[in-house]
Amino acid sequence: MGDINGFLKIKRKEAGNRPIHERVHDFSEVEQVLNSEDRMLQASRCMDCGIPFCHWACPVDNLIPEWNDLLYRGEWKAAYERLQSTNNFPEFTGRICPAICEHACVLNLNQEPVTIRENEVAIIERAFSEGYVKPTPPRIRTGKKVAVIGSGPAGMAAADMLNKAGHKVIIFEKDKKAGGLLRFGIPDFKLNKSTIDRRLNLMISEGIEVYTDTKAGEDISADEMIKVFDAICIAIGAGQARTLPVEGSEFSGIYPAMDFLTRQNKINAGLSLKDNFLSAEGKKVLVIGGGDTGSDCVGTALRQKAVSVTQIEIMPKPPLQRSSENPWPYYARILKTSTSHEEGCHRLWSLSTVRFVGDGKITRGAEVEDVICENINSKYLMKPVSGTRRVIEADMVLLALGFVHPVLEGLISEMGLELDNRKNIKVNNAFSTNIPKVFAAGDSVSGASLVVNAIASGRKAAREIDKYLRST
């Protein structure tokens, strides 16, 4: 490393966020940018630790010590080249990844890890601004055609890798704009959509074709695709939301979180809505589910001028520090406070929703009760606490309960794809399904996961598809 004592001299310094009183009035990105000099100093904190646990923890195998060293030396172009060699879209992960690498950083033993995620996004943004990122279409084409169904992070990564290998790649996306979950699931205040457009335009200039507003299995049949293409990669995500089948769940005013988030993102993009806009303005909002999607609902509801926002979670409140059962360098299962939570949210844990209450068919709140979580043979059992039932008032309820598996109606059922015991698409070690020349990647295979995991899956699937195409 350039300065093996850098971590002793320089303290961790984050770029920080825009002031709350300013950012809650718009959907611009919350996170600020650190100046180049400070960013290079932050990179100097990456120590010569011998075993790079950060690299071990990263799903895309980022060469973190290498590009941190180059960043510290001011060699921005070389740092970009190292970064791009393992990660197709560092501008995405640098913004929205939970930074598993930082949890595994040796300096995190003292709760001061290297600012790896921020360093990553600084490198790629400098690369774009300095013109290091240029279209590099393959010199030789193989004559093989590949269809990628789904334009989320897994589909984009697979398409990018297959195109670079010389195959002709066509992406099919059911929505009016490409990007999948990145486009319509993640709020603009976390990921500005111009970032997606910039990358897609680059991929298109390298020879990839993108067909939007096209449903595979409907607008183009599965049989036709199998006839036309030499290989098919399904990357449709895990879009089947988990439901809450309790009394009153049919009341108006109760919505899946993704319906709420998607509508706002479409409004921000200037797209017309087929359904009514779901507005939290002037309402008491209850978000059920304590994960990232729930947090995104909190931030969006506050920007829509909700009167109040309450978020509840059935699991216990996480500890402030690691437990002995969750040691470094594994991802720390501790209390996470997002920028949306900081903006104004009442959070409650260990609460189960018993039923929804309301006037006729309109929700007026949720009846909840305390539960005690018991771990029996690695399975969580929730036991209700008697005498704890009460009602949380709400005019709007958002169900952020996660996703169970890909949507089975349509392409999956039409193709007759085999499923695993969790109803995800079943693949072998080569990402191949039970249908010849049909592969699958991302959340449609693993179930709902992180964007960085989807990118890693798309890259691995592309390598296997390339092997298959070159052997046929």
Strand percentage, roughly? 15-25%
Largest sheet: 5 strands, parallel
Provide the spatial order of strands within the biggest beta sheet: 3-2-1-4-16
CATH class of the largest domain: Alpha Beta
Mean pLDDT: 96
Count the domains: 3
CATH architecture of the largest domain: 3-Layer(bba) Sandwich
Per CATH, what is the topology of the largest domain? FAD/NAD(P)-binding domain
Low-confidence stretches: none
Distance between the termini: 45 Å
Describe this structure in words.
The chain has about 475 residues and is of the alpha/beta class. It folds into 3 domains: about 5-130, Alpha-helical ferredoxin (Fumarate Reductase Iron-sulfur Protein, Chain B, domain 2, Orthogonal Bundle); about 145-240 and about 405-470, FAD/NAD(P)-binding domain (3-Layer(bba) Sandwich); about 245-400, FAD/NAD(P)-binding domain. It is about 35% helix and about 15% strand. It contains 19 helices and 16 strands. The chain has helices spanning about 5-10, 20-25, 35-45, 55, 65-70, 75-85, 90-95, 100-105, 115-130, 155-165, 180-185, 195-205, 220-230, 255-270, 290-305, 340, 410-415, 445, 450-470, and strands at about 145-150, 170, 210, 230-235, 240, 255, 285-290, 310, 345-350, 350-360, 360-375, 380-385, 390-395, 395-400, 405, 440. The strands form 4 sheets. A 5-stranded parallel beta sheet has the order 3-2-1-4-16, sandwiched between helices. Strand 1 (about 145-150), helix 10 and strand 2 (about 170) form a beta-alpha-beta unit. Helix 3 (about 35-45) crosses helix 5 (about 65-70), helix 6 (about 75-85) packs across helix 9 and helix 10 (about 155-165) runs parallel beside helix 19 (about 450-470). The longest helix is centred in the C-terminal third of the chain and has 21 residues, at about 450-470. The radius of gyration is 23 Å and the shape is globular. The relative contact order is 0.14. The mean pLDDT is about 95.
